[in-house]
């Protein structure tokens, strides 16, 4: 897009599975909508269904539904 400055914080020569992901919350989607790129990203985005919280001291786990 012309007229927008950006800073690349991380890059790679190719896409690869790493076990990591990027979470985009509501305000992030609004910003991407304003930039005109959200609709293209939504074509491949996977909605976040839930999360797992793990206590480092006890190892106790808790499921957190987000959907």
Automatic annotation (TrEMBL):
It comes from the Eukaryota. SUPFAM superfamilies: FAD/NAD(P)-binding domain (SSF51905). GO terms for molecular function: monooxygenase activity. InterPro entries: FAD/NAD-bd_sf, MOase. The keyword tRNA-binding does not apply. The keyword Nucleotide-binding does not apply. Keywords: Monooxygenase, Oxidoreductase. This is Uncharacterized protein. It comes from Prunus dulcis (Almond).
